[in-house]
Amino acid sequence: MPYLDHPSQPRASRADPLLAPEPYDAGHNIPGKRLYSLRQTQQLADEFTIELIQLARHAFPNLPPTDRDDLVLDGFISGLRDCAVSSHFTLNPPTNLTNALQLCRWYDSHPIHGFLSVN
């Protein structure tokens, strides 16, 4: 068994606002609260992403950009209006926001209008 000076700490795959340099307080951090509750309306995925990025920059200005990007990705996935895309991301999480946007653009250009019943 190897000798360890310090217990190993698990590394989270996504940024956690509770581990952010400044404590997350949903009651006082309105942009942070909106980041986690924002839902895509009729806007395109790119427009939704821009809004999330702006909120994240305002809510967590001292967070490293890569961690902030992870928060944006999480907010993006949870806020999507298209259930088919959300389900896809649940089963196959995108590695980054660029990949998520590419798939959303593909879904936007290839809409699924439901299943046809065959008699």
UniProtKB/TrEMBL annotation:
Span list, region Disordered: 1-26
Q: What is this protein called?
A: Uncharacterized protein
